[in-house]
């Protein structure tokens, strides 16, 4: 049996028996029990009553966190001409067309969000097997296939988070940094939960929001009362 370190044991003891907390209680518990030397990400995992293998039960969307993510987002844009210039002026880190496609095909993916103008999709479509598994494939449903590339770049840079139900109906994402004020983290968490709640698909049956867990990058998770996480 693997030996449990002192830090891990202490964290587990602090979290033991604590379930269905308020958002504020969970954030306070996580912040007070972090012992690592870097600014951890606060992560949310939501268990939904859906089966994403069925098209009418897929959950996906985007949410602008009111207090940002605390993460520097690198944005790549597939565009030509005036739209390429527009993307660069808006702060895109990488802009290109066939050259960008070749860079990605070579295995170099140095970005966190990929945006494309509609006319670029024949090129981007060739990268589905590379970008798809990384949840980087541009999609009009989340605003990453658009002619408004400047707005899309600014939104990505400003704290916009994409979410998508994975196998088992779990949605997860980063909702801020440990260094954020507790009130700002709570606001971000409720914004994320609200967006997922509004994205309820037509095929969902029974209880939709089943369970919510919060954790830090290196810490254990704690469950949050679903009703408390939904903003009024």
Automatic annotation (TrEMBL):
NCBIfam families: rplA_bact (TIGR01169)
Protein name: Large ribosomal subunit protein uL1
SUPFAM superfamilies: Ribosomal protein L1 (SSF56808)
Protein family per UniProt: Belongs to the universal ribosomal protein uL1 family.
A Pfam family matched in the record: Ribosomal_L1
Gene Ontology CC entries for this record: ribosome
Subunit structure: Part of the 50S ribosomal subunit.
Keywords: Repressor, Ribonucleoprotein, Ribosomal protein, RNA-binding, rRNA-binding, Translation regulation, tRNA-binding
Domain of life: Bacteria
Statement: the UniProt record of this protein carries the keyword Repressor: yes
């Amino acid at each position: 049996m693997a030996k449990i370190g002192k830090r891990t044991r202490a964290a587990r003891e602090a979290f033991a028996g604590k379930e269905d907390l308020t958002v504020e209680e969970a954030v306070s518990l996580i912040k007070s029990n972090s012992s690592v030397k870097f600014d951890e990400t606060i992560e949310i995992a939501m268990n939904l009553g859906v089966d994403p293998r069925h098209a009418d039960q897929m959950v996906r969307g985007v949410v602008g966190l009111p207090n940002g993510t605390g993460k520097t987002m690198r944005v790549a844009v597939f565009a030509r001409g005036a739209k390429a210039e527009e993307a660069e002026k808006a702060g895109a880190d990488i802009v290109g067309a066939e050259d960008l496609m070749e860079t990605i095909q070579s295995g170099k993916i140095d970005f966190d969000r990929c945006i494309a103008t509609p006319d670029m999709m024949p090129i981007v479509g060739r990268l589905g097997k590379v970008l798809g598994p990384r949840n980087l494939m541009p999609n009009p449903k989340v605003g990453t296939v658009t002619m408004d590339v400047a707005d899309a770049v600014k939104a990505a840079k400003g704290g916009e988070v994409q979410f998508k139900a994975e196998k088992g109906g779990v949605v997860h994402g980063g909702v801020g940094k440990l260094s954020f004020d507790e009130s700002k983290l709570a606001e971000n968490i409720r914004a994320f939960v609200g967006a997922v709640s509004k994205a309820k698909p037509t095929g969902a049956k029974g209880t939709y929001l089943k369970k919510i867990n919060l954790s830090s990058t290196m810490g254990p998770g704690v469950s949050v009362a679903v009703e408390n996480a939904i903003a009024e």
